Amino acid sequence: MSKIIGIDLGTTNSAMAVMEGGEAKIIPNSEGANTTPSIVNVSDNTVGVVAKRQMVVNPKQTIYSAKRLMGQRISSTMVEKTKAEVSYNIVKGQNDLAVIEADGKTYTPQEIGAKVLAKLKADAESFLGEPVTEAVITVPAYFDD
Amino acid sequence: MSDKQDKKETKQEKEINNLKQKIEELENRWKRSTADYINYKKRAEQEKSAIVEFSNLVLIKNLLPTIDNLQLASKHTEDVGIKMIYNQFEDILKNEGITKIDAINKEFDPNTMEAVEKEGEEAENRKAIVKSIVKEGYLLNNKVIRPAQVIVTYK
Q1: How do residues B77-124 score in pLDDT, each as one tens digit?
Q2: For labelling alongside B29, which of A22, A97, B1, B47 has CA 20 to 30 A away?
Q3: What residue segments make up the domains of chain B, in order of their start?
Q4: Predicted ipTM of the assembly
């Protein structure tokens, strides 16, 4: 039975922990930090601090704050506000939901979130020395239907 | 066999099955705990080695802003004393095995550099090249202790 990790998939930063001896222990990422920026460069699939460092060079391909767009329609106030704040393109996707457009492709906010989770999973497996197949992920208080 | 005996045996069988389940559960827990202990021991040894290798890292990281200021000061003054003090700090870093990240005119690498400004726009046949360093980056045993903050241009 593999260990279950807890993940805080944050809008700006993410973190993960595991229960050890009855206490929650933060799992450091591969860069040695306790938190990982929730930032993805979709052109080379880098995630975290490495993606953050090249934001200025690739503003249209570096996706951040994607969690704000999850489940949101393109016409929603949250999406309008986010559009004004970010450097990448947000467009209308299926069912009028907001999606991210970069390098001629579209990405749902969930896909971006999945890339962050994949990095966290890989770092957790490297730290724990075993595969991780189950996780508990936090949900923000503002997530509605 | 009487009904009473049947009921007693069924009760006993149930108890035996419960106990077998309990044993299996405890065995699994014991195996899990043993594996956890082995992993914990491995990790503790790795952390111990890391402490030895990077023991001065926190102190050095805290000193870097001061060294940055001395570098800036030495660039903008003719005061020999300031330059000497800056050079002394540089020697200390070298003695600790800390090297500067060689960034000028190199292709931008987010593994060792952080772009704080860009000049011009990206284009398909042009690469992002480091034009100047805003803040020096440092490596210790090939591990980035601080990325170089750079201004990039496209060539």
Answers
A1: 888 999 999 999 999 999 988 999 999 999 999 999 999 999 988 777
A2: B47
A3: 1-96, 98-155
A4: 0.84
A and B: number of Cβ contacts within 8 A? 37
Cβ–Cβ contact A51 with B under 8 A: yes
Look at the block and give the residue holding tokens 């990240």. B101
| pLDDT bucket at A145, cuts 50 / 70 / 90 | low
Chain B contact for A55, CB < 8 A?
yes
Q: Do strands A40-41 and A62-63 pair parallel, antiparallel, or not at all (unpaired)?
A: antiparallel
Instruction: Report which DSSP code applies to A95.
Output: G
Q: Which long-range contacts (CB under 8 A, 24 or more apart) does B25-31 make?
A: B28/A1
Q: C-alpha distances in angstroms, A121 versus A2, A7, A23, A134, B72?
A: 13, 9, 20, 10, 42
Q: Does A134 reach chain B within 8 Å, measured CB to CB? A: no
What's the CATH code, domain B98-155?
2.30.22.10
Asked if domains B1-96 and B98-155 share a fold, the reply is no
Min Cα distance B7 → chain A (Å) is: 37
Under 8 Å between Cβ of A37 and A49: yes
Closest by Cα among A106, A96, A112 to A45: A112
A128 CB neighbours in chain B (<8 A) are 39
The verdict on A127 touching B (C-beta cutoff 8 Å) is: yes
β pairing state of A98-102 and B98-100: unpaired
**Identity of the residue numbered A51:** A
Q: Which residues pair with A62 in a beta bridge?
A: A41
* CATH code at B1-96: 3.90.20
Between chains, do A1 and B32 touch, taking CB under 8 Å as contact?
yes
CB of A58 less than 8 A from some CB of B: yes
For B144, name the nearest residue in chain A, comparing CA atoms only: A31
